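This part of the workshop introduces the protein records we will be handling. To make this concrete, we reproduce a full record directly below:
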Amino acid sequence: MKFRCDRDALSEALQTVQRGVSSRPGIPALTGVLIEASSEGALTLTTTDLEVSARLSIDVQVGEPGISLVPARLLADTVKSLSDAPVEFETDQSQARIRCAAYEGSLRLLPAEDFPALQPPSGTRIVAEGPRFAEAVGQVARAASRDEARPVLTGILLEVSREGVTLVATDSYRLAVRDLVATAAGEARAIVPERALSEAGRAAQAVEKGEVEVFVDESQVSFQV
């Protein structure tokens, strides 16, 4: 794999998906960011800790398409410290080489085949305005419990109807309810971990006039901004 891109764009993308990186050292593959360079000039970064997953794509100059799994935090810190110049990134079977201005360094790769496959978005589709979605999540997330002894209360309830979405959170002492105007293809109900929903809200907040797509099925909820 080989590509060239803007340092700021790569650094910002890595900082964004880094929030999905696992902190559990027992599963090395989950500490990495899966980097996929396509022949169409898209670079896709994916991270997961098996509870929350993040995927982001940016445009780059791809010299050779490929897939590599790189230690996420180490790569993010390296790119962040580079000078403001184009970054050249190249991998072989065992390591990644990074060049930027006068800097040249290498990182050892993780086995890409150990990275879990992510399910594509599916289920009931909901579309909402990005800023309003972010505002709604921020208003209810603060009421979710932090007590892992009652895991159901650490999540936020999403009730979807054709009229919109209702978000509900409680820690048994306080209750937050927010109705959100949205377009839904049907009805659905799910309890989403507060951290996952807050990450989706943070991503939506960066989109001033865009929309957020939410897909709810029996086993997962996906957000696309």
